[in-house]
Each structure stands twice: as C-alpha cells, then as structure tokens.
Amino acid sequence: MQKLNLSLVKLMVDHGERKAQEIGVPMVITVVDNGGNLIAAHRMDDALLVSVDISLNKAWTSVAFKLPTSQLAEIGASGGELYGINTTNNGRVVIFGGGIPLVVDGDIVGAVGVSGGSVNQDIEVAEAVVDALIMA
Description:
This protein has four helices and four strands; from the N terminus they run αββααββα. The protein has helices spanning 6-23, 50-65, 69-75, 119-135; strands at 28-33, 38-43, 99-104, 107-115. The protein has a four-stranded antiparallel beta sheet. α1 crosses α4. The longest helix is centred in the first third of the chain and has 18 residues, at 6-23. The protein is globular, with a radius of gyration of 14 Å. The two termini are 14 Å apart.
C-alpha cells in the first residue's frame, strides 16, 4: 500500500491550488493520513480564516467515516438515518461536501478537505487533489 508523504502531498495540494486559482476562489486545502493526522494544511492568500478548521474537519470526517462528506450531507440531513451525527465528536463531524477519502489500491491512505468556496467549488478542488494522487 502506498503511503502518503509530504513530498507527494505537496504535489497534490499544488494541483488543488491551481484548480482553485482557475475558478478564482482562495481555498484552504488540508490533507490527513489514514489516522486523521495532519500531513499538510495550505491556506491560499485571502482564504477565509474559518476555512482552516473546516478543511481539517472535512478531511478528518472523510477518513473517519471512510466516505466523502457529501454523502454525509444526505444521510445526516433531517429525516436521514444519521440525522444529528454532526453533533458528535465535539462537533468535529462535517456533513457537507469538500472532504474526500484518498484511496490507493482499494485502501484508504488519508483524506483531503477543502474549504473556502461554495460546496460545489470545494468539491471541485478536492477532486483535483484526488486526481493528482491518481496521476502520481
């Protein structure tokens, strides 16, 4: 199983930053390992300060639940099977898109969390980070 390392993560984050620049939104891009431990947090100039914690929590949530945070949005919404899940873990669970697990050969090796734009923009940048891992 390929492990994430700082050199690889920097390349992935750079790819995400280029996508954020392309869509014109300053973002915070955070990558954690498969234990939810921080590998890198990258705050672009003028990115919202609140996005630092949100991006980390998106990455943590994604690796902890082993699924994209956008899927939690569906099952964690009012009437969903996991309604209220976002109140657990001291409020660390994020139930809107922008967190995606990083999968290599079927194993989750970490996750990316992106915050700073709309949910769709966050997902778009997070997907760019995932694409960079696939291309590596």
